[in-house]
Design brief:
With 358 residues, the chain is an alpha+beta fold. Helix content is 22%, strand content 40%. It has a 15-stranded mixed β-sheet that branches. The longest helix is centred in the N-terminal third of the chain and has 37 residues, at 2-38. The termini are far apart.
């Protein structure tokens, strides 16, 4: 009897040792295989620092995920994520669906503008997106982004430019239409973030991403960016500067059956172009341009509310979207002589708006 008990312990111990061995070996082989795949992307190279199984949550995580461009000696990676977790979603199991939830911790995306294609980083230079999509993963039903950042760099402009949106948090749900199946737009997005100049970004959207050309209804609000924080940007690209003022941007857009309709509504408040006498480094042409900008803003500014605002409508099929020029010009002068637009969207656009094609 004691011999049988001893054999039982040996067998049990062997099984446990095998399970532990497999558990410890899997991350090593997966890490090696994944990094081999990521190293062979066109124009880019990827790498992860670690791979870990999450037994209790039924999933896995990767740490130190990086994608960087091979050419151009670009100093920042295109994508870097501290940790990506892929875990099983339990609620869809009740409907017989095996779906996952992806959580990205501190993701960073860096766009870089340079004088040559090799020194420019946009992510459009290779097929790395397909490569990443082929990596081990659940069929994703929801995505969470914690503390993300999107940056734009131009080290070759004068002055150098860096603008960003950070502290981005986002939640995307029901991507696989597990719930609300009868809804035309069953997936939902909510995103918030802060920008350079203390701007406040908020995006909400309802979507159907399973169509070949996804349908969506999106509201975009970008409020109260301090224009003085954009001095390097406006000097480099527009050749003028703001001494004070705030910028906001509001947009509504809907796309349904490849037909797009919406509007963009920029809003400038308390605007003052930099005093030319204070900026001795400006050229004569820059003086003239700054004066022209200041005069234009003054003419079209809504004086009682100290705002410049207009509405730019657009509509059309995706291959031929037209911006409506005359309504835009009318709206500029309507802002001056009638009223300033409110600092909000007006909820006038949804997928039903796209039915009347022009």
């Amino acid at each position: 009897m004691s011999v049988n008990i001893k054999k039982g312990y040996i067998i049990a111990g062997t099984i446990v040792a095998l399970i532990v061995g497999v558990y410890l070996a899997i991350p090593y082989f997966v890490l090696k295989n994944v990094n081999k795949i990521l190293a062979n992307m066109e124009g880019y190279r990827g790498h992860i620092d670690k791979f870990q199984l999450n037994i209790l949550q039924v999933g896995f995580s990767v740490g130190g995920f990086k994608i960087e461009k091979l050419e151009g000696d670009i100093p920042v990676p295109f994508i870097y994520v501290d940790e990506i977790s892929n875990i099983l979603e339990w609620r869809p199991l009740l409907k017989g669906k095996i779906l996952g939830r992806t959580i990205l911790e501190n993701p960073k995306v860096n766009f870089v503008k340079g004088p040559t294609k090799a020194q420019t980083q946009t992510g459009a230079e290779g097929n790395w997106i397909k490569t990443v999509a082929d990596l081990p993963n659940f069929t994703i039903n929801s995505v969470t982004v914690n503390n993300g950042k999107i940056s734009y760099f131009d080290s070759y402009s004068k002055p150098k430019v860096e603008v960003f949106i950070n502290e981005m948090n986002a939640e995307i749900t029901n991507l696989r239409k597990v719930y609300e199946k009868g809804d035309k737009l069953p997936s939902h997005l909510h995103l918030t973030g802060n920008s350079i100049g203390k701007g406040q970004l908020e995006v909400t959207a309802d979507m159907n991403i399973l169509k070949e050309v996804p349908d969506f209804n999106v509201d975009f609000k970008f409020r109260k960016v301090n224009l003085t924080a954009l001095r390097d940007f406006t000097k480099a690209y527009a050749k003028f500067d703001f001494e004070e003022g705030q910028f906001s941007l509001f947009m509504e857009a809907a796309l349904y059956n490849s037909h797009l309709k919406g509007y963009v509504q920029p809003l400038l408040e308390n605007i003052k172009v930099l005093d030319l006498k204070k900026d001795k480094d400006e050229t004569w042409l820059q003086h003239v341009w700054s004066g022209l900008v200041g005069t234009t803003l003054k003419v079209t500014e809504n004086s009682p509310k100290e705002r410049f605002a207009t509405r730019i409508p657009f509509e059309g099929d995706l291959k031929d979207v037209k911006v409506e020029i005359w309504p835009t010009i009318f709206n500029i002068f309507k802002n001056k002589f009638v009223e300033a637009y409110p600092k909000a969207i007006d909820n006038s656009i949804d997928i039903n708006s796209t039915n009347k094609k022009k």
